[in-house]
Amino acid sequence: MNEKNRSVGRPRSPAGSTAKGTAAPSQSLTRGLQLLECLAGEPHGMSLSDVAQAAGLATSTTHRLLGTLQALDFVRHDERLGLWSIGLKTFCIGNAFTDSRDFVAEARPLMHQLAEDSGETVNLGVVDDGEAVFIAQVESQAMMRMVVRLGSRAPLHASGVGKALLARMDEAQVAAILHRRGLAGFTAGTLSSPTALRAALATIRRQGYAVDDEEHAIGLRCVAATIHGPDGRALAAISVSGPKARLADARLGELGARVARCAAQISERLGGRAPAAES
Length: 279
Known about the structure:
A hairpin with a 5-residue loop joins strand 7 (about 220-230) and strand 8 (about 235-245). The protein has 2 domains: about 1-90, Orthogonal Bundle (Arc Repressor Mutant, subunit A), CATH 1.10.10; about 95-270, 2-Layer Sandwich (Beta-Lactamase), CATH 3.30.450.
């Protein structure tokens, strides 16, 4: 009798459901997301005890959850410093606003225009784990051209994209990356001292673009500028790269202005804004 009187199309509420018929939240999932929120607010990383305290969880529970997230690449652990921080998967998911606007798709038409105007290869890169990672590319049509494999990495201190992104970080972030990654030398032009690098970053902030002058590979030059989100944070950097013979000294200023303008246009499409140039 009761079964017949039950409303058609309304299934029985499963055990553990709320009064409104929605499933109760998973405790482990909720706690895992809480840990990601804690880490997202500390770009320099957090110790296990700090994460546990911030999340209001037992240290053992926190360690178990972080281990699961690490196995899935949502967080990473610096064993030498004992710090936990956000991983690349969380970066991709966490930029939901940018992803919903299709970040690469928004940039690609302007990347194609920049490649056509400059005659050189255009790359788009982001920061992950203290390195630059290339996520999109429009190749030059020239026979001799610069090409990178998507997903490949480059040192921040010895690449145009990397230096542009470093220049938009605060001093604590830069110091943490230098402490962890060092300043490996690749060519005679590589910036191999913190003093030289910081002077270069100050120049980048003043002029609005970075230049890699054979600092990672002999014969190659790169000019890059950062793309910014609604909060002003640098999301990525766009660059023009090619042989030094074509990216001659006389072209660097013009290319720098062109790349910076393209980066600003992409930022605008994303609802972002670039910080004012330093005087």
